[in-house]
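User: Hi! I'm working on a homework problem where we have to compare a predicted structure to a textbook description. Could you give me the structure for the chain below?
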Amino acid sequence: MAKKAAIIGISSILLVAMVVAVTVSVSRNNSSSSSEGGEISTSTKAVQQICQPTDYKEACVKSLSESAGNTSDPKELIKTAFNVAVKEISAAIQNSSLLQKAAKEPRAQDALENCKELLDFSINDLQNSFDKLGSFDVTKMDEYMSDLKTWLSGAITYQQTCIDGFDNTTGDIGAQMQKLLKLSGELTSNGLAIVTELSTMLGSSGLPSTTSRRLLSEDGFPSWVSDGKRRLLQTGNVKPNAVVAKDGSGKYKTITDALKMVPKKNKTPFVIYIKAGVYKEYVSITKQMSNVFLIGDGPTKTKITGSRSFVGGYNTYRTATVSADGEHFMAKNLAIENSAGGDMHQAVALRVSSDRAIIFNCQIDGYQDTLYAHTHRQFYRDCSISGTVDFVFGDSAVVFQNCKFIIRKPLDNQSCMVTAQGRTDKRGATGIVIQNSVVTAEPAYMAVKGKFKSYLGRPWKPFSRTVIMNSQIDGVIDPTGWAPWAGTIHLDTLWYAEYNNRGPGSVQTQRVKWRGMQKISPQAAASFNPSKFIDGNTWIRTAGVPYNP
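Assistant: Happy to help. Predicted structure tokens:
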């Protein structure tokens, strides 16, 4: 009882801290505001205060003042901020249909079609954030903040991906879409800024972390894990819901047919066992397909392959051989390939936008843009990823543990970049973390490596963040370590760190001296462990895969 009372006491204090944080600050400023002559309403003061940490204050104040009525409740104001952003994105979706009628170029038409899906996903992340705010539970504070930051970062990324789809198109349709999304982008960024400020405020409150108690039931599993899922995760032999086999020995011959059996918004694991064979198909785990597990006979036995590419007429977002949008996606013992050659430019093998996705013992092969770690929280363990240009890219919060990154022989005029991280907001809870892994090259590259240069990465977007730590870096990486994107763009705002690596490619003496390069302490490095960076203890530990928190 004493323990329970202590938890309730801490919960009450934290809840009060969240709900009144803004109004306390408003009260402190009350006398100074009044002394300046103008009586400012409590609601106006609350709006001004809650907008204080944002980058787009004018948009924040205007949108909340017009939509929030007379409320001064910070919780309601934050929910209002999310709602206004949703309305703006919904308006952009409607206008995109009008733009599509005006667009004559096929690639621009495809980009607009993609935008409808991407903006729906952005709305979904904002709605999740709204719902999370309404179900605030301070006994789950760390998970709560991780979720909010993840989904708001995802909402920003989806809007940016929509805009990116117009690269290499002609006409002004892309510029018009960017204009339509300007306000919604600012409002979403503001929402992330407000939540980040709240998280910082609660983190500095001196109250104990709720991590150790959070979500755990008596058997050690998080409380959100259903009994059926616990049984699945606790057993070595998984009984599949569907069996796919090329030779007809399973119920289905294609993975796509098996996926048709997944119930919408599935709450329990739906396991699809894919027998050995080469499956030439494009596999889509849609947003409605939650908890899908794809399990093969091994990465040298079960392969899913496709060849869509940018040169072949597809937007990069649509080139993926396998795409996963539904939450809690897991792939195990598989190979996934995009067989389009390097001369076909962007050609994604695997795109993951799933939240809390796990990829274990998989081989992911391609050339340019092999792995699109697009959005949300992702964990890769014991995988190999091969490619040439930007072959791990995206704006998820992703940790690679015990993985191998294999540089392939590029075209004669190309250099190779392992990563191209795409964070566009300085508060985004995203980044690429490579831990206890190996960066190396295939034999075909090694035979001619003097002809080419390879780098650990380059900054795709302004606040690109990549951390490589405790890893083996072979002598295939140029001594400078990192490449610019174009001239000096993003070099001051990127966030790159190397920590405690080994191997000839890890030597720091000739590394680039950009302002964004970081030297981090052991404590700072620990913040990028999966338990901290992607809140991994609440979802990876239960998944039956090796995991070093």
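For your comparison, note the following. Residues 227-543 form a domain with the Pectate Lyase C-like fold (CATH 2.160.20.10). The longest strand covers residues 416-421. Good luck with the assignment!
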